[in-house]
Request: fold
Amino acid sequence: MNRGRNIVLVAAGILIGTALSGPAVQAASGILAERSAQAVYVDGQKVELEAYNIDGSNYVKLRDIGTAADFNVYWDGAVQIDTTAPYTGEAPKAVQPAATPEPIQEPEPLPNPTIESADYSAAANPEVFCGPYTREAYNAAYAVLRDHSATGIVYYTDDADRQQLENLLAELANGTTLSLRGTGDGAYEIYAHTVDWSIADEATEDFIREADGLSTDREKVIRVNDWICDHMVYNPKKVVGVNTVASSPVPVEGNCSSFARMMNYLCGRLGIPCIRVHGESHYWNLLYVDGVWSYTDASVNDQVSSRAALLFGDTPRKQIDDPAGLRFLQELLIPLRIGPAAAGLRFGKAEIQQQGQTLWHGSGPFIYTDLMLLSSPSGRKANLEHKGEHHE
Reply:
């Protein structure tokens, strides 16, 4: 579950099984199959799937599940499932090996008029750039995060590196997910696509208004944690979507991944930088709250009477699968040498102001009332630049 995909919720225990075809009632090798009347829902929305009942169990085509939940299912010597890619029904194109043992020379970046040709990575901690997490990837993702209509180009000769970056960017899903798509010659385009959480947006409108009225981000996160624990019940075997949790009149069962995804969604609406973290087969969150990064695990808080796992500092309780990737995401959201205000993330309608002057305007609830301008290594004052506008 590395991408922000809607989860299929199936009534009455429909199984994902072998695809069947033929008339409504069909006998083959002594097996009787008949059309199933069970309902199938995707995030609370009913969808039509062809299903059959065989000996008391319901079967649907795996490809139909992939189409409904938007993950890829294809044949490549065996049935393959890729939950990190949208459904196409086709195997991804293999990266062709180099014709000679000579080192592969990366081509010059393709012209891209939709983003600024700025080195955003200069404001980040240089120690985060390693492996697939390059300055090139940082600049592309940084631009798209702050302008969802933009795209950025990165180059990978190793498909595993490309996949690692895409999986990492999915942990930022707050209603908009960053993905990669190939454009040829080892080039991949980073782009933003919106997750349809309109049902959740409407259902949580009053709560967001209430929480947003609190004085500090810490108070807001505490309120979000309590809301999640009131509306969800921890069950390690249940996966539930954001729309379903938000719109349900009763608490909904969900696993740690579902709890962490809900935390991402609500914090995103409140303008609080939030990352979903994975380690030791468990999901939790890392949040930027009142100037510091701190971990929260709502699924643990749901199981205890206290808030023991709420904003418990910057030391994780479990071994993180990809600590280098996590540091990369932290710098992507809050660059070290700029500070939170100048980061200018876009997730609703917001502007950054200082002393009555508008310094940045965009779409996102990332609203900061003070602008941090830190000294650069050379001693010169750091500058805020956005779409050609320059402010001291």
Remarks:
- Residues 217-231 form the longest helix (15 residues).
- The chain has four domains: 8-82, 120-194, 198-333, 340-391.
- Confidence is low (pLDDT under 50) at residues 1-28, 104-116, 338-392.
- The domain at 198-333 is CATH 3.10.620.30 (C8orf32 fold).
